[in-house]
Amino acid sequence: MRKRNKHPKLSFADRAEKALNEAVAEAIAENRRRGYPIAIWEKGRVVHLSPDQIEVREADVKYSTAPGKRK
């Protein structure tokens, strides 16, 4: 039996992008909980964020360094 689509009006590409964004948000939140740093791309270069610099937000928000916490 086939599973029913939870989002029938979204295209396959939109559903894939939504799933990817949710997975990235969960991975970022998990790194913060476990105390692991992450690396992001900011202003044309790689920036490493320590766990206290990571701001966990909703899946559709882009991540950047927290103001005033950059080393």
What features would you highlight for this structure?
single chain, 71 residues, alpha+beta, 1 helix, 2 strands, elongated
Description:
This protein has 71 residues and is an alpha+beta fold. It has one domain. Helix content is 32%, strand content 14%. The protein is built from 1 helix and 2 strands. The protein has one helix at 12-34, and strands at 38-42, 45-49. A two-stranded antiparallel sheet has the order 1-2.
Fraction in beta strands: 5-15%
Mean pLDDT: 80
How many domain units?
A: 1
Structural class by SSE content = alpha+beta
Order of helices and strands: HEE
CA radius of gyration: 15 Å
Low-confidence stretches: none
Total E-strand runs: 2
What's the short story on this structure?
The protein has one helix at 12-34; strands spanning 38-42, 45-49. The protein has 71 residues and is an alpha+beta fold.
Secondary-structure blueprint:
Blueprint: H1 12-34, E1 38-42, E2 45-49
Antiparallel strand pairs: 1-2
